[in-house]
Amino acid sequence: MVNVPSIELNDGNKMPQVGFGLWKVENDKAADIVYNAIKTGYRLFDGACDYGNEVEAGQGVARAIKEGIVKREELFIVSKLWNTFHEPEQVEPIVKKQLADWGIDYFDLYVIHFPVAIKYVAPEVRYPPGWFVDGDSKVEYSKASLQSTWHAFEDIQKKGLAKSIGVSNYSGALLLDLFAYANTKPATLQIEHHPYLVQPKILELAKSENVAVTGYSSFGPQSFIDGDMSLAETVPLLFDHPVIKKVADAHSKTTAQVLLRWATQRGLAVIPKSSSQGRLEQNLDVTSFDLTEEEIAEISGLDKNLRFNAPLNWGIPIPLFS
Prior knowledge:
Substrate binds at residue 113. The chain has helices at 27-40, 54-66, 88-102, 146-158, 172-181, 200-208, 242-251, 255-264, 277-284, 293-300, and strands at 6-8, 14-16, 20-21, 44-46, 76-81, 107-112, 162-168, 188-192, 212-216, 269-270. By secondary structure, the chain is of the alpha/beta class. It has a domain at 6-220: Alpha-Beta Barrel (TIM Barrel), CATH 3.20.20.100. The strands form two sheets. Strands 3-4-5-6-7-8-9-10 form an eight-stranded parallel sheet. β8, α6 and β9 (212-216) form a beta-alpha-beta unit. α2 packs across α3. The longest helix is centred in the N-terminal third of the chain and has 15 residues, at 88-102. The relative contact order is 0.13. The model has no long low-confidence stretch (mean pLDDT 96).
């Protein structure tokens, strides 16, 4: 089994550097996929309310624990607060619902999914609630501040519902603001990160504040071409990019492994997913070889500041990154 290194978080907890992302994992396959990923050696699973598959992911975890493949304390389970639950009084109830869906007592890491608060939708009305208050096209914002939401996060950490707390999709300005009011600094920052969106300045800021960074969508447009996003078709797929292929050939690795090593060698955690056994194993084995400094620089030089995972790109009229 591959030995995956851990990143020590600023709260003393340890997070595997390579995990499995549950975004777009189909419900009818999620339990088996999670179970098989655990058998393969994955210990970090990155989920979210909005993915709509937490019940099934939890079933895969329960099966692996029941069979003695893994103990709960050996897993690092991540989930996220959706935008409709930012009111402080809604945070603890929804965390408890998500824990019940997973069938566990605590999250190893709980994260604010997006830095935007939209109007509350009760779980019994619609779950996951999505971006629109009417489930169709209407956006209505909440008055909950990010500061009030963060203090609610600090409360759930004190109560043991989440061992670590963090944020996702925050800008540098929002991070600086968070550092000013936080009693507990975020342990992690999760951002879109690939050679077309390197974000070096926010990486520098996070490092200077000892906040670990997890990069998602490590394969760039590959994650979005099946989502009817025309933007993903405007650039070469990174799997086919001549620079990535050249580096992969030089190390006798796949282009996916090179993309993940480019991130992990620079200190980031990654959360790829695959349903292929061969790729599952390859994606986990991305810390056992090193790229040269020149190769890392050449890959970083592909940066186009091209963000795929923005609401506007999905036809959602929320200019979050504008």
